[in-house]
Amino acid sequence: MVPKIDSEIGIFTYSTAFEGIGGKIKSTADDFFVSEVLDDNVISKISQKGDYAVYKLKKHGIDTTHALDEIFRIHGLKLKSLGLKDSNATTEQFVCATNTRSLERFSANRYELERVGFVSKPLTKKDMIANQFKIKIEGAAFSKISNFDQLDKILNFYGYQRFGSKRPVSHLIGKSILQNDFERAVNLLLSFTSKYDLAENTQIRKTLEDRSNYAKALKEIPPQMDLERTVLSEMITHNDPLKAIHSLPLFIRRFFIQAFQSYVFNCTLSKIFEDDEDWLSPKKGDVCYDIKNKLGRYENDPQQRLTIPIVGYAYSKKNRFNYQISKILETEQVKPKDFFVKEMQEASDEGGFRQVAIKCENFSVNEPVLSFTLSRGSYATILLREIMKPTDPIEAGF
Question: At the N or C end, where does the chain have fewer CB atoms within 10 A?
Answer without folding.
Answer: N
